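Both lines are retained for reference:
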Amino acid sequence: MSQRSTFGLAEGLLLATAMVWGTSYAVVKDAVLLYPVLGYLALRFCLTALLLAPTLRGEGRRAWGVGIPTGLLLLAIFLCETFGVALTSASNAAFLISLCVALTPFAEWWLLGQRPEARALGAAALAVVGAGLLTRGVNLSFNLGDGLILLAAVLRAVNVCVVRRRLQRASAPVPSLALTAVQTGVVGVACLLLFALGPGLAPLPVQVGFWLSTAYLVLFCTLGAFLAQNYALGRTSATRVALLMGVEPLFGALFAAFWLDEHLGLWGWLGGLLIVVASLWGTLPRRALGEARAVSG
């Protein structure tokens, strides 16, 4: 499968995914105040899997071979992320998870044998610097929550490469909806078992806000986001996916400024600008970059 060099539907979907994932930290942080982390993950992912269950018929059966192992990786990622967000600040979480951008080119080199271009490495480094400025330097005491988020960043980098490798090696195309169904089902069922065997099942909250947040996370941050990511990984490189997803902290900061009345300040806006520049630098084809430089000149 040839790697695309243009900015098309897959890349646009990834930007939309980064936008909704950027809003998810504050939403999840509020939700887990009302319901235990494991129970909330079970609810979120089981609902998503149930919505997508009809896609597992026919050609959708091909998704099981790819979906089960990558679903287990997603389980580890979301356990680390959700417990981490509960134990650290939203700004720390947004910065640390952005390190996935810098780690993905090396994971792609290790797992897929694709040596990263200097441009991709430079763009990844610039994105991390931008995330640091965006979160105002981040006051890392490096507690357990910070460590879990950092581990989630490492696992994210590995996951996008593993999904791409398995999609490339599949004997026939794997439908993106069916793959998302299997992955979310693995995460949801595993969390439900851990919840039942650990603290035990608890009554669901009755607050309207909790269910509105759950609906948003299920429809946009889980179903839509993973569908977009799986679609893109079948059509572009893991490094391009990571660079486009690297704008997630920017959308998170903008959401915090709009929804939570947090003030970005000059450094925050500069960091956001660097993230945008890094994503464009690392993902636009050289021809487009050359034309942009010619116009600006």
About this structure: Residues 1-5, 287-297 have pLDDT under 50 and may be disordered. Residues 39 and 114 are 39 Å apart (CA to CA). The chain has 13 helices and no strands.
